[in-house]
Design a protein that fits this description.
- The protein is α+β, with helices and mostly antiparallel strands.
- It has a single domain, classed as 2-Layer Sandwich (Ribosomal Protein S5, domain 2).
- The chain is built from 3 helices and 4 strands, in the order αβββαβα.
- A 4-stranded mixed beta sheet has the order 1-2-4-3, with helices on both faces.
- α2 links the parallel β3 and β4.
- The radius of gyration is 13 Å and the shape is globular.
- It starts with 9 loop residues before the first helix and ends in an 8-residue tail after the last helix.
Length: about 120
């Protein structure tokens, strides 16, 4: 089973989900009973001008998510969108994994249906 989030679910997560901003990325999170454990990534041309840099950032985000799912860090019944920030450039996968873990801890502490920043 693929862990990639289909494009049709992005709007739902942006509308109903919560977000947390980190140094390297912004994480949007939606927990729902019908959700699969999936993630989508967004990397803008404004932050990463060259296609090579954008693709590397997307690969880093996907790989970090995949490894965290394998470790069991990412909660079940959740869908994620990770938006890469310019600080992601020249970072290692371990740095991205630590940032994602921080986002998971931060979102699990906050409760309620409101968006957090």
């Amino acid at each position: 089973m693929s862990t990639r989030l289909p494009g049709t679910k992005y709007k739902r997560i942006f509308d109903r989900g919560r977000s947390v901003k980190g140094r390297l990325l912004v994480a949007w999170y939606l927990e729902a009973p019908d959700a699969d454990r999936m993630a989508g990534v967004v990397v803008s041309k404004k932050s990463f001008h060259d296609a090579v840099d954008r693709n590397r950032a997307k690969r880093l985000l996907r790989e970090a998510y995949r490894l965290l799912v394998k470790e069991g860090v990412m909660p079940e019944k959740t869908e994620w969108i990770f938006i890469g920030r310019a600080a992601l450039r020249d970072r290692k996968c371990q740095d991205v994994m630590e940032e994602m873990k921080w986002c998971v801890r931060r979102l699990s502490r906050s409760s309620g249906p409101t968006k957090s920043s």
